[in-house]
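INFO  loader      accepted 1 record
INFO  loader      residues=136
INFO  predictor   begin
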Amino acid sequence: MNITLVRTEGAQFRAENEAGRVTWLAGSDEVGPSTDGIRPMENVLASLASCSAVDVLLILQRMRHQVNDLRVSVKGERADAIPAVFTSIHVHFHVTGDFDQKKLDRAVDLSMEKYCSVAKMLSASVAITHSASMDD
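INFO  predictor   done
INFO  writer      dumping tokens
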């Protein structure tokens, strides 16, 4: 697995994987202007959300359930010191589909506690909690 990161202007960076897929990251405006991208620590939260969302979709599909909508909200609390690492993260899944809350909870638990590589990596140093709701 390889990523190439290239500065495009100011504190803005273009990250590209081996398949040519691209995402944008940006540093602080103090370092230089950037019009695209999210901050690196926000990207950590986005990585956690997307990793677990893919798991939840796959688990529910394997249970032969239709997922109509899936959103993930992630809130990270950071230390008030440098480095400002995450001290806690809460992940909440908002889902609609042809299944009940119990099935959703099971899929989310499996993802967050067993399958999501990002969650497993972060949980070694950060308290991660999760919840889920069947939304209308």
